[in-house]
């Protein structure tokens, strides 16, 4: 690697202006970027190439020469990572090649659109219950705490097959993991408690299987010896962690967008069929994985006209590629009727593209339709500029969203 | 006129984008969630949607080629 004066590079992750959660990058940061593929300084040392154009991000995330294994030396780490532990054995999001494919393929059938349709009534039930509970608590209420956070963790409960009697336990510990006021020790403890519960449930399902993900993986994979129990528990934890904060922040920020654009909230109430298109545009416009996707080059490659050398880090900057004017005309505008919205990469691209996307889309659709329907007078209690943000979390979101109705 | 579509199950990661785009042509296997074709030679009228599926497939597992009946 050539010698580079890292201190002069723009500091990454970029954050948006404090007074507008819908702008992913400050213009002062954009100005400092050196072209569409430029170097940035990483938060935990070193530097990486930032890939920003839509076409280049597509190419990068499909390229076989880049690794997702954050434990490899030289990996461009964006978030503090725990030391490699035994309970990482199912975290295929950080694996490459065969190891990744082996585990992901055990789950693909579970997330097929036709199987997600089966749990959609449960999602509806969950959404309606959370909204009616919020109503009964009375205005003003925090839409993040009462609605956006509980819906995705309850949905994962349904998906895994957590019995009713354990829902409160599951919800409580999931909440601790996502709470910005939790310390590392509390989070560690909550993760341990949930892993313990999942392990216990999986064992129970070995003898009394039901129609759920844990039962199927137990009977079809663990019993025949294709999958170890620690891998099963760790995969289930991955589903919880990957599906919770992302979806919760999407629900919260989407509600905020609709509060800022009451005409779209009204349109959705009149015509729920608008929801799927609106959800795609919200995914593009909000791109909650704002820090982007880091990868390590294992071989020399050319991306966007720039040679990337083996051993160098890159970051696919999803939030910028989702605002690439070449693909999305007037990219800064929120336009629920945008024809090309579905080309966004909010779920990534390539081998690791989000496996949970049919579930996430169903949750967002149901959540927004019911919110519009049940709370026709919904208003924000706070000016947009004062809504507290969570810029440095793994996924971007607002810390709270006080609403009234 | 019809078009020939091919899918590569070795590459497929079961994202379901093709099924979401065009259910008449694409489906996912109940056992492994990987793509399979309902129709290998869909009518030309579906070309735009087939091409959308090609574009949205995250791993390039779908190919569409033009096939003319006229010789
Ligand atoms: C709107 C909500 C969501 C967003 C924006 C989102 C975003 C993403 C992104 C960008 C990736 C790619 C990571 C990479 O390439 O390194 C990903 C992967 C993943 N997501 Fe999601 N996700 C969401 C919801 C969910 C849900 C609901 C689940 C499951 C319950 C889930 C489970 C996963 C898993 C397991 C992976 C790893 C896939 C792999 O490595 O093959 N996600 N997600
Ligand atoms: S879009 Fe591609 S990866 Fe996804 S299911 Fe279809 S063929 Fe497989």
UniProtKB/TrEMBL annotation, chain A:
Keyword set, alphabetical order: Heme, Iron, Metal-binding, Monooxygenase, Oxidoreductase
Biological source species: Actinacidiphila paucisporea
GO molecular function: heme binding; iron ion binding; monooxygenase activity; oxidoreductase activity, acting on paired donors, with incorporation or reduction of molecular oxygen
Gene3D superfamilies the record matches: Cytochrome P450 (1.10.630.10)
Highest rank taxon of the organism: Bacteria
The keyword Oxidoreductase is assigned to this record: yes
Family: Belongs to the cytochrome P450 family.
Name this protein carries in UniProt: Cytochrome P450
Matching Pfam families: p450
PANTHER family per UniProt: CYTOCHROME P450 YJIB-RELATED, P450, PUTATIVE (EUROFUNG)-RELATED
Listed SUPFAM superfamilies: Cytochrome P450
Automatic annotation (TrEMBL), chain B:
Keywords from the UniProt entry: 3Fe-4S, Electron transport, Iron, Iron-sulfur, Metal-binding, Transport
Cofactors required: [3Fe-4S] cluster
MF terms (GO), sorted A to Z: 3 iron, 4 sulfur cluster binding; electron transfer activity; iron ion binding
SUPFAM superfamilies in the cross-refs: 4Fe-4S ferredoxins
UniProt keyword Iron, yes or no: yes
Domain of life: Bacteria
Function: Ferredoxins are iron-sulfur proteins that transfer electrons in a wide variety of metabolic reactions.
The protein, known as: Ferredoxin
Species of the source: Actinacidiphila paucisporea
Organism lineage: Bacteria, Bacillati, Actinomycetota, Actinomycetes, Kitasatosporales
């Amino acid at each position: 690697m050539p010698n580079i004066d890292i201190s002069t590079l723009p500091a990454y992750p970029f954050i948006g202006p404090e007074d507008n959660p819908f702008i992913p990058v400050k213009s002062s940061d954009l100005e400092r970027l050196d072209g569409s593929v430029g170097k940035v300084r990483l938060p935990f040392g070193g530097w990486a190439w930032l890939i920003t154009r839509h076409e280049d991000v597509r190419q990068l995330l499909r390229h076989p020469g880049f690794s997702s294994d954050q434990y490899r030396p030289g990996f461009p780490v964006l978030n503090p990572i725990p030391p490699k532990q035994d309970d990482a054995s199912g975290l295929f999001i950080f694996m490459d090649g065969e190891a990744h494919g082996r585990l992901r393929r055990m789950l693909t059938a579970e997330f097929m659109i036709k199987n997600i349709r089966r749990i959609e009534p449960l999602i509806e039930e969950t959404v309606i219950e959370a909204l009616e509970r919020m109503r009964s608590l009375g205005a003003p209420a925090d839409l993040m705490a009462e609605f956006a956070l509980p819906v995705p963790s309850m949905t994962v409960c349904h998906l895994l097959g957590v019995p009713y009697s354990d829902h409160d336990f599951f919800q409580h510990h999931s909440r601790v993991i996502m709470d910005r006021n939790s310390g590392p020790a509390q989070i560690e403890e909550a993760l341990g408690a949930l892993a313990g519960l999942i392990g216990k449930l999986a064992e129970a399902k070995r003898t009394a299987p039901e129609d759920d993900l844990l039962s199927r993986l137990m009977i079809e994979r663990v019993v025949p010896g294709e999958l170890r129990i620690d891998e099963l528990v760790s995969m289930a934890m991955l589903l919880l962690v990957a599906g919770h904060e992302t979806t919760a922040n999407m629900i919260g920020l989407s509600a905020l967008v609709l509060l800022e654009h009451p005409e779209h909230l009204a349109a959705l109430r009149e015509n729920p069929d608008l929801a799927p298109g609106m959800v795609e545009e919200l995914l593009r416009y909000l791109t909650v994985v704002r820090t982007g996707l880091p990868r390590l080059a294992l071989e020399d490659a050319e991306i966007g006209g720039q040679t990337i050398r083996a051993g160098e880090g890159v970051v696919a900057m999803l939030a910028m590629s989702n605002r690439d004017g070449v693909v999305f005309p007037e990219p800064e505008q929120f336009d629920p009727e945008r024809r090309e919205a579905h080309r966004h990469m909010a779920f990534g691209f390539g081998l690791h593209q989000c496996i949970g996307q049919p579930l996430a889309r169903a949750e967002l659709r149901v959540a927004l339709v019911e919110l519009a329907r049940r709370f026709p007078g919904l208003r924000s209690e706070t000016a947009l500029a004062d809504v507290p943000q969570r810029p440095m979390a793994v996924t971007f979101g607002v810390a709270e969203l006080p609403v009234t109705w | 006129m019809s078009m020939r579509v091919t899918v590569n199950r070795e590459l497929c990661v079961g994202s379901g984008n093709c099924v979401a785009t065009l259910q008449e042509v694409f489906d996912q296997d109940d056992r492994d969630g990987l793509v399979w074709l309902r129709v290998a030679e869909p009518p030309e009228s579906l070309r735009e949607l087939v091409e959308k599926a090609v574009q949205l497939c995250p791993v390039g597992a779908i190919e569409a080629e033009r096939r003319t009946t006229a010789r």
